[in-house]
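Batch manifest line 317
LIGAND: zinc ion
JOB: complex structure
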Amino acid sequence: MSQSPPRFVCIPLGAAGGRDEGNLSAYLIAASDSHDFICLDAGTIATGLAVAAKRGSFDDVSLPSDSPLTLEGEVLHHHVKGYFISHGYLDHVEGLVQASPTDTGKPIFAMAGVLDDLEKHLFNWKLWPNFADRGVEPCLNIYRYEELRAGIAKTVPGTPLRVTAYPLSHGPHTDSTAFLIASGDEYLLYMGDTGPDAVEQRNTTGDLWEVIVPLLRSGRLHGIFVETSYINNRPDAQLFSHLTPRWLFRALRQLAERVDAAAPQTALAGLTVVITHIKPDFSATAPPVPCVHRELHEENDLGVQLHFAEQGEKILL
Ligand SMILES: [Zn+2]
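JOB STATUS: finished
ARTIFACT:
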């Protein structure tokens, strides 16, 4: 696979898959020549902005000398143009809840079922005031729900980006979402939480692969963000619609096969795969995070470029 110059910037505001309430799934994405971001999932916002600012990841965002805001506030108020929520589970929306009283007006893009969950179960004046524009009155109208339909690209006002949503299976009670982000004719794929097709008894990952095969063949996919929540020895019955290193690489090998059936071993070589959502626990003797890292490297017979997302870093893709 030929390496094209970076077209996207990603700053993870939160990268872990649980336990640490200050480091949950949220990824700022901008076109590489822009400082105007979309935020994919919103598990952690404020802590992630502070960590990113401290790490210098916003050093090229100009803070006007007369700005009444901190750099983090400037980024959130003026450079985050909208949220994309893969599903409504708390580890993907907690940061949004906490940010909402001091946030500025923004769209929340999601598929209909996810918007419905946010409206009925979160921003409903029971769990939290209704900061959105529909549902239980009064609506505070900070956020505007914008429905995404599978396979139909949506332009994001204030950015050069277009985003297309695709459903992902995430157990019997909710669907998750993959977002295909386009800048011009170059692409990035973000996958929300999902389990293996074989365990989920659905084909949502396989269907998604069909969409990205032509992009991979023409060298226009700059990376895939995908979860690996658990270590390999987790039984399938205990996956709760998540992936292990072995299951992820089974899926990637199926993708490679579709990209180039004659030479699947090299079909994805050099592709950046950003690993998200590893679930830490409280084990002192067998912490899962380094184990997932090791197992992913052991599984990697495709030559993909594994990148373990870290809170506040700046990734060029
Ligand atoms: Zn999650």
